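Protocol step 6 of 9: fold each sequence in the batch and record its structure tokens directly after the sequence line. For illustration, a two-sequence batch is reproduced in full.

Sequence one:
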Amino acid sequence: MKLIECSNMVRMQEIHLPTSLDFCNPSIVAGEEGWWVLVRALDPIPYHGSQQECLSSENWLLHYADDFTLKSTRKLDDQKILQTCSPARNGLEDGRLFLWKGELWGLFSGFRREGESFYNTMILARISEGEWVDPVVLPSPHDHAREKNWMPCVRDDELYLFYSTQPLEVYLYSEGELRPVSEKLGVNPKSRIAPIRGSILSGSSQVIPWETGWLAVSHHRRKAPVFKKLFMKHITHDSEYQVKKVIFDHYFLCFDGNFNLIRRSEPFQFEMEGVEFCAGIATKGRRVVMSYGVRDRISRLLETRVDTLNHLIMELPMSG
């Protein structure tokens, strides 16, 4: 299923930035005066641009009015963090934007390169006067060298972080520490979507309030069929082989008030098979807006209505 082909999708809007870099993976939040969108811009040729020691990247903040008239565009300064926060010294990647205690925050995968080795560590940072400040390093709960795609959730002014949705693993960020909260919140560890081709679901968007519970977009990364990959690589010599050989399926996930997974959608793409990535979902009244990237070079917003989205989410038979 492709969302842009659904008759009830209200509008699609492309995001533009005043930069020579490609840009992708936008993240959206709803504010009192319109919408805020965080967009990552990156060098299309890794280790080639102005920062040859890493993948050149920038983070831009766009402010839209309620009707998505663009009000402002600003490149956010991250140099202090890159210079003082070692786990993020080579860039802040794929930020999820969220509002917490009246301020805009980002949850990033901080990038660090050591010789031929690559490391990713989750980083929290706050926006203040056009720059990222107050970085907080979030060590991997499982001592993994590369962490990505955690999903922020603000509940009762407390910050929760969804480490994974299958199996469900949630942490409360408090006083600079991550505290597992499954037992505290009454989460049923057996409540999960049936395994999808033996793989797991990775985080994509934030986790936002939805009816009496919570909603998120998650994704599953799979490889294109072998024959198709061979055809693209050796017969057609497709110049976009690298972004077509992997397919991202997305899912809407619905949780109850205690973060138990209760419903999900069928798998969908936004507009094409290949590399797509949704890093944001936001609501305002009955409006729902999702932000996503296509092939790591295009950023778009897709708007629909609450009722339309509810039709896409089906009842999920629970295990256990």
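Sequence two, same batch, same settings:
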Amino acid sequence: MAMLQERKASPNELSQWLGTTLGATAYHVRTLHKLGLIELVDETRVRGAVEHHYKAKARPKVTQENWSKASPVAKQAAVGSQLKMLEDYTNASAAAGGFDRTDAVIERKTARLDEKGWTALTAEAAKFLERVDKIEADAAKRLAKAGAEEGLDAGVVLLGFESVPLSTQIPESTKKRTPMKRTRRAS
């Protein structure tokens, strides 16, 4: 899906990129198309056959109400899938120099909040994402006006979650530590 959000592709191209069989890839593409998550955007003739090219539709937003109704297993699968995609995306971007700019941002922040603070934080996150959409729309207008295809692809990841302090993940040592005695060496 991430690849099809960036550009159109045929099942054959996707299978080559993903290193999967054409049959398995085509099955998944058909399923995504039936679910309305991708759309057919082009057809080309290749050696007498018709190759279909698909592109992802705008990602549906998961409402708070629907997320609250999802089972814990469904939530874990959705989060795991997104985190794996983010890992692949950021690693590939980093390897290609995506964080080389002096104005690149790579930050992690934790905050101790009450329920009112959590509500304020998630509201600000939603506003920020709306602002990213507006910035992108404004940039698209400028690029179209200039006739430029030189725009750059920017990645923005925003995660808001109840965190587990990393310090709680460090196992307590099961060994008793005794201070080492220093002895003087004779010269």
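Proceed to step 7 once all outputs are recorded. Observation for sequence two: The CA atoms of residues 84 and 169 lie 21 Å apart.
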